Amino acid sequence: MASGSGSKVNKDAESLLRYGLPGIPKEARKLQKFVETTKDDLESKRYSAAKDGADKALSVLGGKDAAKIAAATSSPETAKKLLAQMASDLKSFDAAVTEAQNVNRGSEQEEAARRKAKDLQTSAVSYLNDIEESMVPKNYKVEVPDDYKNLPKLQGRATVEMVFKKDGGAPFDIEGTNFASAKLTMVLDGYAAPVTSGNFVELVNKGFYNDMKIQRSDGFVVQTGDPEGEAEGYVDPSSDGKPKPSLGKGKHGERLIPLEIMVKGDKAPFYEENIEDNGRGGQATILPFSAYGALGWAREEYDSNSGSSQFFWLLFDSDLTPAGKNVLDGRYPCFGYVTEGADFLRDIKEGDTIVSAKVTKGVDQLYY
């Protein structure tokens, strides 16, 4: 599932976040690849391929690579237990897929077996998540230039939840099912975008986005972050309209943050220029705009350092942004993904309101 210039686009937000973790050894990446392929194969009813992926993952778990994977974590004994639980899930997954394979297509028995297999695959992936996250050193911090020392930065990752309501109390209609409110869960990545993610987490924690309207919804992106009044971004009220020392200020006193791009293979992002200006055009970024609900930081098209508080969710379309030809990667920072509730973006429209936004995990990872 290539997320760069390969022939197949990786559209799985949680997979992309796993690939964004720094310092993961090749043995763990091999296991990840096999476990993740089972999801797509199951969904597409490619049962033989799903069983093959599970068998390959079990081969890794039963061989020498498993010991190397455990040894690379912060707690090898815990990792061994998680690997054993993953192996148990994958064996049961294989059995459930066999059951689905051996009954009539479209039958209730097939659907029941597929649901069981899906739950087992999800469980196996959750163990994989825990293992890979424990491979990142506890105090791992991406180096950020001193030029931005007064801007908030995120060390590691944070989780944000947003709840939306429609004007007048109308429901959100998702494929014929109505919901009184919409809820998105987002994971923000301080490994690939420490300044962008830190800025967003700080603003969420300050309540900046509470009661804010959606300002754009055009089928390509859903965007918000422009406050009422003449300012087009965040102005720190504690500084009486004069932002703390940072990159600079906007025409109405907005706090500005730099364009921040991190390319695969680099240990830190580069700043204040896009990927072409940096001489890296065509290279893959750590977090690509290839998942539905990918989070991007908005800015003026010809001013790399004009971002403040406006951001967008990309409504990914593989026809508009095919593999290797994504017009956003390297030009705008992708700083996270929607991991739950992404379908709601289909019916979040201009004028809808963010009734609440809160940091549910990782606010303690902010630093200056």
From TrEMBL:
Its EC number is 5.2.1.8. Residues 171-353 form the PPIase cyclophilin-type domain. One of its GO terms (molecular function) is peptidyl-prolyl cis-trans isomerase activity. It holds the Pfam family CYP38_PsbQ-like. Keywords: Isomerase, Rotamase, Thylakoid. Gene3D superfamilies: Cyclophilin-like, Oxygen-evolving enhancer protein 3 (PsbQ), four-helix up-down bundle. Signal peptide: none annotated. Residues 226-252 are annotated as: Disordered. The keyword DNA damage does not apply. PROSITE patterns: CSA_PPIASE_2. PANTHER family: PEPTIDYL-PROLYL CIS-TRANS ISOMERASE CYP38, CHLOROPLASTIC. This is peptidylprolyl isomerase. It comes from Triparma verrucosa.
